[in-house]
Queue: 4 jobs
Job 1
Amino acid sequence: MHSIKIEMSINNNCHYSSGITYPQGFWASGICAGIKKNKEALDLGAIISSVPAICSGVFTQNRFCAPSVSYSRKIVKENTIRGILINSGNANAGTGQEGILNVLKMGEMGEKAFGLPPQSLAIAQTGIIGVQMDMNKVQDGLRKLNIEPCNSYAFAKAIITTDTVVKEYNAEITTLDGNYRIGGVAKGSGMIHPNMATLLAFFTTDAKVQKEFLDKVIKEVTDSTFNMITVDKDTSTNDSTFIMANGLSNIEIKEGSANAIQFTDAIKEAFINLAQKIVRDGEGATKFLTVNVFGAKDIEQARTCARAIAASPLVKTAVHGQDPNWGRIIAAAGYSGAEVNVDTTSLFIGPICIFDNGTPQGQNLKEANLEMHRKDVIFNLYLNIGEADATAWGCDLSGQYVTINSEYST
Amino acid sequence: MHSIKIEMSINNNCHYSSGITYPQGFWASGICAGIKKNKEALDLGAIISSVPAICSGVFTQNRFCAPSVSYSRKIVKENTIRGILINSGNANAGTGQEGILNVLKMGEMGEKAFGLPPQSLAIAQTGIIGVQMDMNKVQDGLRKLNIEPCNSYAFAKAIITTDTVVKEYNAEITTLDGNYRIGGVAKGSGMIHPNMATLLAFFTTDAKVQKEFLDKVIKEVTDSTFNMITVDKDTSTNDSTFIMANGLSNIEIKEGSANAIQFTDAIKEAFINLAQKIVRDGEGATKFLTVNVFGAKDIEQARTCARAIAASPLVKTAVHGQDPNWGRIIAAAGYSGAEVNVDTTSLFIGPICIFDNGTPQGQNLKEANLEMHRKDVIFNLYLNIGEADATAWGCDLSGQYVTINSEYST
């Protein structure tokens, strides 16, 4: 086995770089290693930083989490890292002791292939549960994996499963001290309902950030973005979101500074962008749904209520049928666990009021029906109980969703 | 308006009585009052006891509960009752102040029509949310409602919505002191996922029971039956279960006696019977799923875990596709919130072991596949953490379900 020697320029000026290779010093790759059933699909990839990077992660709450999740959780906690090795086609979850050993092996094989020090490579996996990894395919694949400065797209392709589009993001942030960049790549398979799919998201930045601050930012931002297309307890065995920060822009982000506020906002924008792309690419989805809840008692209740509405199968089928069935929306708010008072509750579909302080507005049903025929449907629910607002994003539930998931074969 | 004078024989020996009219002294009726869109469907009905009966109920936890729920909760708490008046086609939920007044009116109109004292009639409603009741139709319907000793079937037909079959139950219980009877009728529209449908269930018995004991029994038995095809927080605005006991058999059920244990078991059997009928008639359902969880830490965790598996859209689509995708089952257990340990977890599909103390049993996949092709599919999950067991019942998720719910029109 030959090891790929990485000689990355500190100022990589690759003209076409996008996604996770947009910030300085991040290279990537994605190839076909034969792990997926479709023998032409990309399924092995890596992001590598030319210099050690701090990394923060949020991981699935599933108690049967995959061994790669436990492994990466530990790696990013204890070390700066150099990269993340990923595969799709096999989640390596529910694979017993052999699965745990295979993750350790993958880490070592990757570090050797890329010429990196031990314990410097995190791992993320997605795909079928309960099948052992074919480690020969990983080994052969690593030989072919050429890390390049403009290869974010290949990496993004290598992590998708039933996604129909590749999901990338990049932005340049201007500060008084100069510019830094943020890049990202994510996969769903896009169902809002979280147990439908592994959600993997990878972000890179060349900003100079402290680990403690980055840990705070990723937690805070995830709660109002990726967690609003998902429900904590329903995460898959492999859900993971990573941010790597390598500091190469030399723009320092100090907690409490104006730069820090701007950085948090920029990361939030990146997260929302990819979270929405995941929902738009939902399995069988034909519509994009935004649920805004205003005036809940506290932020937790606002989020719970918005998520309950966006996740309700009855609401989702009504959105699919383009029916302004507001009773299902109100019912979902009622069972969400959030405090509600029917006499102070109002509901708008788009700009059309359909339930005004507890009284149905039947005369507006025709106009509401037109709003339901848009590709992007918006529900605005006013609880008028407190000061907390939240937004959840979802999609409709179509017969196509059932087809995709019942024809998927073990 | 003429009022129907009820002269029921104390020993009603109606030969063909079944369902809720099986116990002595219970009469029923169901007619078409034109409340449903389908102008031939039955949609108004009543159960009447010839003598005052105690009544216990469990009602929806939905915070936007319908006014008939608040009304009936109060009626059964404070009084013995004479009957329950029901309609389908309109849930009368989300209908503001007018909806509340209409429930009061319905109660008074019913009591007058049947010649009953005030506050002796509970009310249950199901159907569309947010549309005002047409009280003229109720008034006209009440004129036609002939309460008869053998009319359980008509009542059962009058409460169904998208149900495809009528659901009745009856049993005679033999004690050392003589016999008593239990009858029941229920509607779903059968989805296991609780926010899909209003669940209404009505039970009658001529056993002589104390109100306090009946309150205990209904709560305890509901938790292991109807609540195992539903999730507390996800109940609709109108879910209600009633038991009326009129004592006409003169068989006394004293708390703590052998009779009391037998009575609780008999009620449990009645509840399980109708709960399973609801699931089997699930919207679009083609398969019946039983999820047994063994060895959970406590009963709450056992139930949570079993329900999470039976409710998971990914598990349900796998059941529809007849695929032994055990990874989805394990993943649902993992996110359910129940304490699990992968090394002590085993999973059987029917009698076939597919996951043995954390290790996949790939060699059994073919046999497991055969088990998935049965009409009744059984999952047995052994957590081996504690002593608590629970069972949940569900059905598959088919394209037909989406069609039913997206074509339903407001």
Job 2
Amino acid sequence: MTQKLIGACVLAQSGGPTAVINASAYGVIKTAMESEEITRVFGAAHGITGILNDMLYDLDKEDPEELKFLMNTPSSELGSCRYKLEGEKDLARILEIFKKYDIRYFFYNGGNDSMDTCLKVSEYMMESGYECRVIGVPKTIDNDLVGTDHCPGYGSAAKYIATSFAEVYKDAIVYNTGAITVLEVMGRNAGWLVGASALAGLSNAAPDLIYLPEVPFNLDDFLDKVEAIYKEKNNCVVAVSEGIKYSDGTFVSEAKPSTTDGFGHEQLGGLAATLAAVVGHRTGAKVRGIELSLLQRCGAHLASQVDIDEAYLAGKCAVESAIAGENGKMVALNRVSNNGEYGCEIIFQPLTVSANLEKTVPLDWINSDGTNVTQDFIDYVLPLIQGENTRVTVNGLPRFANLKKIKAEA
Amino acid sequence: MTQKLIGACVLAQSGGPTAVINASAYGVIKTAMESEEITRVFGAAHGITGILNDMLYDLDKEDPEELKFLMNTPSSELGSCRYKLEGEKDLARILEIFKKYDIRYFFYNGGNDSMDTCLKVSEYMMESGYECRVIGVPKTIDNDLVGTDHCPGYGSAAKYIATSFAEVYKDAIVYNTGAITVLEVMGRNAGWLVGASALAGLSNAAPDLIYLPEVPFNLDDFLDKVEAIYKEKNNCVVAVSEGIKYSDGTFVSEAKPSTTDGFGHEQLGGLAATLAAVVGHRTGAKVRGIELSLLQRCGAHLASQVDIDEAYLAGKCAVESAIAGENGKMVALNRVSNNGEYGCEIIFQPLTVSANLEKTVPLDWINSDGTNVTQDFIDYVLPLIQGENTRVTVNGLPRFANLKKIKAEA
């Protein structure tokens, strides 16, 4: 039997925010506060940099009722960072801070890079003979983490994207004068987010074309297809991933200007505006480019309850498993069938499982001409966007958690 | 007593869509179908052009249960247009179609221009001795119609804007490396929409600066203020109206390029991207421009129940009043106090009330340095965003009305 480990814990949040990363935080905080083994609960300000800078919040001083609102507060309430550990010096500093506060549990809520940080910290603590259990809690809207069926944060972003596409589709086709509308969705190398736009088809408002980064982009083919649909239907709605690339691997968003194809200027406005301009140049149609931008990753009001619940569960199980003796692992979600219905169970993976890998959309979930996803993709994502969240509103506006964020004393 | 007028009615939708224009449509359709006087209910395809082109839908052939979903279907389900009547020829054609279908009631759901169309149609029918009652039903997210306290469509757009600003604010401040975020909101000449971003303050997530089109824009002053806030807080979130203008009246969005201030290229990406680039040039900060674009006017999932109810009521009262003998009027909303609580009653205004006028934000509802709205503004808009709508979702996605849209026969 694993020996009981008594001491404090610290939670940190890293990387790009999601609509539900704070639900994972609440899962960690609440479970830690209720445990006998964990003596104090700290939150690091701005991820691992909060530990390096000795800037921890004393979460035990927060009102427990206020902490509950983390379940529906988007973005990383403790602050985030994009910091890569700089070797021995940083690790020694982390050990120093852990000793200062008697931190015996470290929970890092982030993506790929955060799992790498977890691994380094975990190994260093073991080498140093300092007993500390380290668990990574995954989050990313991009859904590109290997070792987990899907990732907390993805379902809510997918629901936001599908709903927004359905609504914009209704707007984009409203005039008899016709229009071509290009919507840009996040996802640098994986098409999980842009593929979710296909779900708008269940509201009879699917985009006509969907371009994923997994398929090399051909501008001429794109223009031909858009023009053909526009001529037939008088309207065309296109979904593009920010990460679409030409066959030589260069991002379309970074394409060199040319005076002949409408790429007349370098654009600050992003890919959607650029492609809309090019397609307007070709067709003469009224065009509009729309970038979902930050809205898609912080849209907590449209978070899926399934995603919120799973995010909470990931945080809760991280703490429970660490107390039970788990160390150096990443929480992962495993899809199971409950009498034919979607179910999800927590499993644990080595922290190395996702290192330097990105899970992209299987090519056989993309149609043959690379302009849509298949039913397999729909079947995969649909269970993840279920459930309207039970968020609290006050005066018709979101009620976010208002934490005191009191600096911890050792 | 007014004589009973027996005959068909036609409803048409015009101008830019809103999240609740179809709730007004349902108010018209349901009330007309239940009336004894109205024999048939038609919907014109794409506004007045559907009448000119003899393209009417026979709404009596729709499933009444399906029509109910119009209450939560964004955009103009019958299609819209931006067509200005071309004098006598068009009016004569409208009379011809009205006679063909025995149309005795005409309901036009639109903004300023639509009220002008209503007036012309109304006057022409009277001159021609053809008895037909004409009522305008207002809609616009811009809230710039004169003669009504506020306009159906505005409250829902305001709620979408306030919620989205609150969420994006949480995301925009997440990194300790700092950021400046510029969000662009619709409103060519009136600041009602951009001012609604101030409501995010009730979620403790207000933008730091708000620029309305009512106040001349000064780029140097803007840069000074953004830089000062960024230096103090490490973050700055700015709301700008698409319609901000320099003191000479030129739109900032159409400003001529210059190589010295960062306006180095003409931008397709819009005002937010341009201002973000300029402010990044000045401060060296990480910047992001976000345009709420069509999302803000079709975000039915965030429609306010108050707005939905008022939109429905406007349509319902239009029909009831026409049956009772009203003609050549615009439905308007009058704010009343119900024991100190917000209330709203329907009144009728001459169709000329809003002609060639735009209702802008009173200057004393804008703070002295032109970078925010006052409590009077908040008090005005807050009642209009109340109530989470009771929309139906299926599979986690919006359930829109699916009309058959069968072409009418005379």
Job 3
Amino acid sequence: MNFRTDLAIESIQSNKETISINSDEHRYGDVTVSKVIIDNQEISDKLGKPLGKYVTVEMPTLTEYFRASDERIKIISDEIKDLIPKKGLAFVIGLGNLEITPDALGPKATNSILATRHISGEISKSLGLENLRPVSVLSPGVLGQTGIEAVELISSIVKDLKPSCVIVIDALASRSLSRLGCTVQISDSGISPGAGVGNKRPLINKDTLGVPVISIGTPTVVDASTLANDIFYEHSENFDDKKEISCPNAEAMIVTPREIDLLIKRASLLIGMSINCALQPNFSPDDLQSLVS
Amino acid sequence: MNFRTDLAIESIQSNKETISINSDEHRYGDVTVSKVIIDNQEISDKLGKPLGKYVTVEMPTLTEYFRASDERIKIISDEIKDLIPKKGLAFVIGLGNLEITPDALGPKATNSILATRHISGEISKSLGLENLRPVSVLSPGVLGQTGIEAVELISSIVKDLKPSCVIVIDALASRSLSRLGCTVQISDSGISPGAGVGNKRPLINKDTLGVPVISIGTPTVVDASTLANDIFYEHSENFDDKKEISCPNAEAMIVTPREIDLLIKRASLLIGMSINCALQPNFSPDDLQSLVS
Amino acid sequence: MNFRTDLAIESIQSNKETISINSDEHRYGDVTVSKVIIDNQEISDKLGKPLGKYVTVEMPTLTEYFRASDERIKIISDEIKDLIPKKGLAFVIGLGNLEITPDALGPKATNSILATRHISGEISKSLGLENLRPVSVLSPGVLGQTGIEAVELISSIVKDLKPSCVIVIDALASRSLSRLGCTVQISDSGISPGAGVGNKRPLINKDTLGVPVISIGTPTVVDASTLANDIFYEHSENFDDKKEISCPNAEAMIVTPREIDLLIKRASLLIGMSINCALQPNFSPDDLQSLVS
Amino acid sequence: MNFRTDLAIESIQSNKETISINSDEHRYGDVTVSKVIIDNQEISDKLGKPLGKYVTVEMPTLTEYFRASDERIKIISDEIKDLIPKKGLAFVIGLGNLEITPDALGPKATNSILATRHISGEISKSLGLENLRPVSVLSPGVLGQTGIEAVELISSIVKDLKPSCVIVIDALASRSLSRLGCTVQISDSGISPGAGVGNKRPLINKDTLGVPVISIGTPTVVDASTLANDIFYEHSENFDDKKEISCPNAEAMIVTPREIDLLIKRASLLIGMSINCALQPNFSPDDLQSLVS
């Protein structure tokens, strides 16, 4: 039985008895970075995760202030740098619904991304910004608001914009309460938008867009029914009759921290600044922050 | 074992084997109104609910559009009218934190309340508003933002304002997912602000303020640990070893509908308009809505 | 001397001594609808307005509540209907910056547009929505946020989406304080996004997109320097030395109503609902409002 | 003729031919601090400014990023420190309407104020916060929303709270476009709330509250009619017929920077952090910022 999770690390954990997969772990102070590669279709199917590299950054909590020079920004931006092409236009996309707090991570994070594609030639010289990498940014909204699948919209734009890579930011669902706001997953496997709030949409990946797709997200919710099953199984482990339990209305319900607004605010800033630092290595985090705000 | 709930009707339900209490029920189309009176200290203690009248309005869902003339507004405003004095200044207070979505019901509802205390004499005549009841409105914020307990702040103002009654709006916690956004509780028993998000504060009631206090709220969250216990017990009912289960991090976690922002928006409008209609019987719902917005 | 205005009716008024152009006027209660056609390149150049039809709806004020059944919605939606093709996908675009209040008209109005392109076949039947016209909706953001010109973005999407028409909503600049929030302009001449806040961008019109473009907007600001010149000329009309006066810092300054937030909220609702009614003639305004909110 | 301004420095400037008053000026880099004392009732009447000290901090612009350690925060907080009592509870009040962007400075600034009155004894020790000065915070809203004059509300609370001083934050009106967002005025003369948006209310000062009142504000708007008159007089100075000109609808109109939302965001952060630094000298700006956000 696979519980609902957008985190590869949790899929692997809950299948550890049948699947063996190497994880490369590093610790930086109180931050842990673990990397796995899913390179085998059979394992991919069992885990319910597409082929690709998955980097998981775990930290004590996001629920505190951080500065542009925060070590966590450096760690995450280094991991992003490893996965993206070094040159060319980067197209950063914030998925999700700005009007639904737990789903607003993507749109809010794009507010912190420095768009630079339009700053060129004489203007960039006059601003002392000659070494900026070109970046374009979009929050495409969600199907219910636009009537257009995100992948459809992005695909049309990518054809003309011809970026060297697409970076997608989205809210994720986790299986575990303790991960909410404490874990960042970076992957080159593509993304299924809306997964974080339970509406699976067509994949956004290298196959559908034709350019490398790097996804970045943090879990903001646990499915109420995932939580219910987890709790039930944990507390009834001596009993034989393990069955999937159903929880009325749970489909439409999520578990979040009470301070979900604060979590979204901080996580979107952390992810936005980490992407800026990865894309603009010629500028310091402080300079990038002052250019954005 | 009493689970966490701010709804008297749920406390009574979960104690039905040991406590007998009469409930007076009426149906209006798909809306049910039930009334109980807790008039006995022993029962009050067992239920964990203060003495007083509790009116519970249950409807299919709030998750749809409603007009000023909606039948639900009429039903709720009639129940409010029954509990408040007919004359004199009404002081409407929206408890909770505007910055935390599931706790923002009170502040958002006060945005829909028509403040009228300052409209008097010649001005009210010239506006055709001579028959307005005087109303004042406040969102006192939460202790962490202000450093002042809500009851302390309200008490200072009540001493000088001398209202005939205080009407308090607050987000509630329910035990049941199916009640979120579908139940409105109206009571004359007073209120413990912050209960809806787990931070119990000093009571706001007739004893602490010296005037009648009517409270109105709708459940916006279920405690993650309440849900966990409920699910566990429901699914392990054949077993002897019923014990309270603990759920790591669950203290800080809540269960809400995915569309919590929408629920808050609609519930605050429903409650705000219902209070306006109860306080201004000389004006039609449509007129009141046009005066507010 | 042509002052800065996005309203054809004002350009014509300030050139009335040299240009003669017929205006067709109708009154509906306190609402006036006037229509002009600029069909001559010489006149177009003198007025600084592209060729096309311009419909101007003038009403006493927006600063009051209106219902879905408001007469103004009917009047404006009828004028929109006259300009758009009767069938096929309509693509509605809200230009402007959601984060800058006087420029947020477009993005806010799109929040009221009913997106329907994704509701089809069995789903639309089960919802009783078989007669919905397909509509898709986008707020492309502004160049400084995205690094992509709005016309570039829209053009890429139009190529794949193949709509029968594009409807563009944008905030406008007026020459006159008395027009702010009281005038709606509808045109088939295309639009230059950002004009309302002083940043001219490439045109969005039938030539650049390949499909009919209908634009709808309301003035939300007057340029501080336009106001300054207007006032100066009005009050010094006996004197010979009429010269353009300069006003330090005025470039970056705008004149708006104190209650600009309220104006934007109401105007975006009026325009959004008028577009819905024009696009979905099989549904009543009340039904459309309940589908949107 | 006195034009409308909330800045003492502008009143003095426009009366410089008839009134002589000493100003004490200091420069710190590109920041100028000037201090005047109005200690004479006749001069107070001529200037239309109450008796008291007025400190004006002028800087190039707020329209850029600043850090907790910004020199401007230090300069402003030093001036606040000079005017407030060294000990006892400080009560910080943010005047204005959160829903009207140019009037939201006060409420937004209070979001950055560290409330500490409720953190005491064991809790403050366990948090390492023993040396915090007690601070309470309130945004009382505006008369139209609450039906209660701000001074009435504050007065009731002050009687029970017994603070050693009240610090009031409010948006101001300036006569000059070039001052918007570039000037901070600090005064011990009290304040007339709503002045910044044209609705004069009863005074909030030591006489009405019984404790010292320090006010802090920045101009966010210029009255449209003030601007109109200024421009007219500047450009018609050779003519005899100087008369006050009227500007239709100008009463309800204001002149603001296009980026008024950004100005409010930055000015409220600057003022909020400066107050925190003035009230909590035992903590560094960085520590205070991390405690607030």
Job 4
Amino acid sequence: MSLLVTGSIAVDTVKTPFGVSENCLGGSAVYFSMAASFFSPVRLIGVIGSDCPFDLAQVFAGRSVDLAGLEIRKNSKTFRWAGTYHKDINKRTTDKLELNVLAEEPPKVPRSYRDSKFIFLANTAPALQLQLLEQIDNPSFVAADTMDCWIQGHLDDLKRLLKKIDCLIINEDEAKMLAAEHNLIKAADAILDIGPSVVVVKKGESGSIICSADERFVLPAFPAAEVKDPTGAGDSFAGALLGYLAQVGRTDFESLKQAIAYGTVVASFTIADFSLAGLTSINKDDIDGRFKTLRKLTQF
Amino acid sequence: MSLLVTGSIAVDTVKTPFGVSENCLGGSAVYFSMAASFFSPVRLIGVIGSDCPFDLAQVFAGRSVDLAGLEIRKNSKTFRWAGTYHKDINKRTTDKLELNVLAEEPPKVPRSYRDSKFIFLANTAPALQLQLLEQIDNPSFVAADTMDCWIQGHLDDLKRLLKKIDCLIINEDEAKMLAAEHNLIKAADAILDIGPSVVVVKKGESGSIICSADERFVLPAFPAAEVKDPTGAGDSFAGALLGYLAQVGRTDFESLKQAIAYGTVVASFTIADFSLAGLTSINKDDIDGRFKTLRKLTQF
């Protein structure tokens, strides 16, 4: 089934204890699309400036990523982010954030995308997520991400969004913040009460968890000895998760379990190298092989 | 097979966001024995002062815990610990630490315990752990715990210990500290290089991991909505783990996987109530029931 993503396209500069990657391609929509395209065709909505040094058609060549929703604005600049990961690779500092084109009017959903069934609204202002969602005719399964600044500053908008989506994909600390609850399970239950029927909590190297009204599933992260650059891990996770669901066309709990296992596997490839190199260097067989390994590593 | 534990017996005062438990029974050997006794008879070695307000024979009544190795010193005082857990229940502050009898000569291993096959050396000075281990004739499987102060201050002793044991059971931060390595998988591999054939890393609410030279296994924590008092979680985990291994009399990797799943389950009961109440209120059927639930929550 058709899968649509709206999110950022970024020029990133990333420093980690293992090296530096200057002015590389990043952004939630890019990582998401690359990850999802292993499973399902993807429709991308995003906006860049004319300064963007990357040809996205070239980046996604040979992959089923529809760029009809990519807008290039002549007099605007592309979103730029620079960050440094610490020795404890779970911690990072933002060195520079230039919203540029992301601070302007958001891109429109092209007419050809309006029949999309699986939707991922990557992290941005919840009012914009709602505005984008309203342009889709009759979606089957809508997932969204959010972050601390929207929870703290735009909670009413966020709650309106939560009533319109099926699945919130959120980091552990942000889930606890949103629910004002320190226990993660209680936090997830409290978020379910606001609206979505499924909450997926990303716990970084501690794995992830799915909660619905009457079922739960917990999965560790893939135990990776090689972590070079965690940028894009969460969006790759979401990409593989939604990509798998769109591929099988189901969203029952058993399918969700498979989906977060694929999300976990694909994210583990993302973090093994800088920028998109961890994803562009693998194929579906690599993913399926590691999926089997993950099952072996976790089943008793 | 016979299971022996050496560790502390404590009078604890614990404050958590959910209440206060003053002068309650605690200590690594106590939590370990209570947890292990669901699976296997336990031989306890520990020492208390004449001020100890608890009758351990009464505490363990009806459980197969041999107290021949319990020493009560007339002119000594029992170890006392007081701590406060924060709203984020993973963080705690030690309010008071009175070593008392633990700062004296350690207890001896009774002659009747010398043929013990499964051994757990709870956290204490590694020189004392070695001294206790030397009194066992021919152990089959020796596991030990340690903590930051021994890694920082007694590393040579600790390395001598690691060459004599089969399994180190250690917290995540301490594993990274011991190996001087931020990546947990690399840290575990580095510890294996020092001596033990198995490393079990406890990650608190993020679960646990087993690493041997050629196999790994990762398991999330039980997703618990009720956490009242995390004291004793690690020792209960170790108790059920070693108790299960002693019960089945095997230490192959498949048995280790089952063992940490039982450890995870029993620890989840420990933290649901203060002091030992989470363990004294359950039976083996409760454990087996939650073991099945844990499998359902983690298998895909």
